[in-house]
Amino acid sequence: LPRVLSGIQPTAGSFHLGNYLGALRQWVALQDTAEAFYCVVDQHAITMDWDPAQLRQNTLVSAAQLVALGVDPARSSLFVQSHVPEHVQLSWVLECLARFGEASRMTQFKDKSQREGAAGSSVGLFTYPVLQAADILVYQADEVPVGEDQRQHLELTRDLATRFNGRFGDTFTLPAARIPQGAAKILDLQSPEKKMSKSLPPAGCVFLLDDPKTSAKKIRSAVTDTGREVVADAENKPGVTNLLTIHSALSGIPVPELEERFAGRGYGDLKKELAEVVTDFVAPVRARTQELLDDRAELERLLAGGAARAREVAAATVATVYDRVGFLRPA
Ligand code: ATP
Ligand code: MG
């Protein structure tokens, strides 16, 4: 079976539709055909300002949500990144192979450092893609299900693996990004020139744990484009196209069929129907997440089991790597 690794930050507590349609939906689907390792990347979540109590709670809520969405801890290893210290152990070696210049080209750092400026941002925010490379390479993953925005980080991961293999002998599997067609990039409802993100104001971002009234309102208030025809046209009608993409991804109805269905009707009808499609999807996820959180001991037990399985694989990789780079083995 191919091995799959992916991670998601617990920063906002709730995931959003972009996370689900771009990444998490594939996590669930791949469990049937791959050996899957899925983690809540709490260490990535401290690269920007954070609150410790909130982080702990958000980590639990994130894990519960993954299970509620269909990640099955019996079939996949579901764990918390900081429970597997091998990620950071490998990360240091990769940091010493990564070049300052290539890390400087990462557009995510450019985006995320805008507020504080590069000089005021943490070094961790800068080296984040290298830790991400370690997350992936430590499991010898073949595939990484992610959204479109992660393509560049995956390229860096492959470059670092190739460099290590070239210098120290074949050690790492080269991972391929697995980016879904159609819904690889869900756009923000208020600024459809940007990707939907928890880091933008919440009005444009549909969180899975929003109460249904809030999600419906966000969709009804989505920025649409001039004109009134419901047709997909990413260039000239990014707002309407985004709504059609979300509808199609959740309902399974192809976009051309939706265009036919809404022919001669306005944006308002599309929004009204989409609000229903979205609330029908999120309501059970919300309820199930709450149930899982009500039994915290059981949830923590599941995560401990996932971390134990993950460590077996990760520890073997780190042992080989430390040997090959010349670290003296502890007696
Ligand atoms: P931030 O904006 O703070 O980076 P995020 O919302 O991108 O947060 P991440 O934890 O960085 O969340 O990403 C988790 C996964 O969701 C990644 O695989 C990423 O590619 C995917 N993803 C995030 N936003 C979108 C989006 N708008 N459309 C499609 N996929 C997305
Ligand atoms: Mg992101």
UniProtKB/TrEMBL annotation:
UniProt binding sites for ATP: Q9, P10, T11, G18, N19, G147, E148, D149, I186, K195, M196, S197, K198, S199
A Pfam family reported for this protein in Swiss-Prot or TrEMBL: tRNA-synt_1b
Reaction equation(s) it catalyzes: tRNA(Trp) + L-tryptophan + ATP = L-tryptophyl-tRNA(Trp) + AMP + diphosphate + H(+)
Assigned GO CC terms: cytosol
Chain span(s) of sequence motif 'KMSKS' region: 195-199
Any one GO biological process: tryptophanyl-tRNA aminoacylation
Class in the EC hierarchy, top level: ligase
Keywords, ordered alphabetically: Aminoacyl-tRNA synthetase, ATP-binding, Cytoplasm, Ligase, Nucleotide-binding, Protein biosynthesis
Compartments in which it is found: Cytoplasm
EC numbers, comma separated: 6.1.1.2
Primary residence: cytoplasm
Coiled-coil stretches: none
Entry's Gene Ontology molecular function annotations: ATP binding; tryptophan-tRNA ligase activity
SUPFAM superfamilies membership: Nucleotidylyl transferase
Its biological purpose: Catalyzes the attachment of tryptophan to tRNA(Trp).
Subunit composition and interactions: Homodimer.
Family the UniProt entry places it in: Belongs to the class-I aminoacyl-tRNA synthetase family.
Stated name of the protein: Tryptophan--tRNA ligase
